Amino acid sequence: MENNKRPETMARINTPALAEAFIEDEIQKLRAEIGDKKVLLALSGGVDSSVVAALLIKAVGQQLVAVHVNHGLLRKGEPEQVVEVFRNQMKANLVYVDAVDRFLDKLAGVAEPEKKRKIIGAEFIRVFEEEARKLEGIEFLAQGTIYPDILESDGVKAHHNVGGLPEDLQFKLVEPLKFLYKDEVRVVGKALGLPDSMVYRQPFPGPGLGVRCLGAITRERLELVRESDAILREEFAKSGLEGKVWQYFTAIPDFRSVGVKNGVRTFAYPVILRAVNTTDAMSATIEPLDYALLARITARITEEIPGINRVLYDVTPKPCATIEWE
Ligand code: XMP
């Protein structure tokens, strides 16, 4: 990849006016580069790919084909939000692929974390490749590469990469955010009219909830992790912690234990809460959550989700734990 150094003269994009100027400039550049050809984009609904999509919709409209693969490992409401924002509101040419069964069938019985990750990554490429083959006249592939991705990989290869596509599906890359830092991407996303819940979204691993559903993924435990995560996020938002705590989520182990509810013995799963702060994700400290908030979250999770009978709060920093549980 050539030209991987951010121009020294480039001002930090930290105001709406600077974001507007960046957007106008990029629109002109994208139109000149793409002409009347088509551009493909894997749209996860994360900050970077969403901002690239919104920018390309402005620049080339229906020439953008955005593919959203629902692998069944997304958080509650995410696939619906992608469809609502990009298809219904922005009128994008969005291909929504329901690949939930495919992914879960491939993952059935696989407990080893690296194996799970490999299956999810490989299946994603396969689904994306199949969709790309159905389309004609695609010349470009847009990616949400941002500047830290380039810096971290020493300019060798970017992090956001639909790598693994076969030789005959190597498109010309379009990476309009490649000189932007994350905070600048958010300012641009806001100026493009994306909702705050997308622009200020906390980090989420590529393999999604598959990481947080420990051991072999089952549909039952996937629902438990999705529902408990949704309650945690709701309660954080109500308490003003959204946007303050760097990352927070739930994880479900693959064992059950005895509990009691309404005088009846239960045999159900525990859920683990995690809330951390960090600047670079290399190390992390624990957010000291208010006990009343923990009690509220515990009450809601155990009352609203029948498959869970215990709530645990992980107070281990990184190191020696990692941020994720997997
Ligand atoms: P760990 O668990 O290694 O996580 O302390 C550090 C940060 O990286 C995120 N993470 C990922 N992000 N793809 C991503 O884009 C991944 O495969 C992945 N795995 C972990 C994790 O959520 C945390 O913010």
Question: What's the structural blueprint in terms of helices and strands?
Answer:
Elements: H1 16-34, E1 38-42, H2 47-60, E2 64-70, H3 78-89, E3 93-98, H4 100-107, H5 113-134, E4 138-142, H6 147-152, E5 172-174, H7 182-191, H8 196-199, H9 209-212, H10 219-238, E6 247-251, E7 257-261, E8 264-277, E9 285-286, H11 291-304, E10 308-313
Parallel strand pairs: 1-2, 1-4, 2-3, 4-5, 8-10
Antiparallel strand pairs: 6-8, 7-8, 8-9
Bound molecules: xanthosine-5'-monophosphate.
Xanthosine-5'-monophosphate (XMP) is lined by residues 203, 205-207, 247, 281, 318, 322-324.
Describe the structure.
Helix 2 (47-60) links the parallel strand 1 and strand 2. The radius of gyration is 21 Å and the shape is globular. Helix content is 41%, strand content 18%. It has helices spanning 16-34, 47-60, 78-89, 100-107, 113-134, 147-152, 182-191, 196-199, 209-212, 219-238, 291-304, and strands at residues 38-42, 64-70, 93-98, 138-142, 172-174, 247-251, 257-261, 264-277, 285-286, 308-313. It has 11 helices and 10 strands. It folds into 2 domains: 2-199, HUPs (Rossmann fold, 3-Layer(aba) Sandwich); 212-313, GMP Synthetase, Chain A, domain 3, CATH 3.30.300. Helix 4 runs antiparallel to helix 5 (113-134). The strands form 2 sheets. Strands 3-2-1-4-5 form a 5-stranded parallel β-sheet, with helices on both faces. Strands 6, 7, 8, 9 and 10 form a 5-stranded mixed β-sheet that branches. It is α/β, with parallel strands linked by helices. The protein binds xanthosine-5'-monophosphate (XMP). The site of xanthosine-5'-monophosphate has 10 residues, from loops.
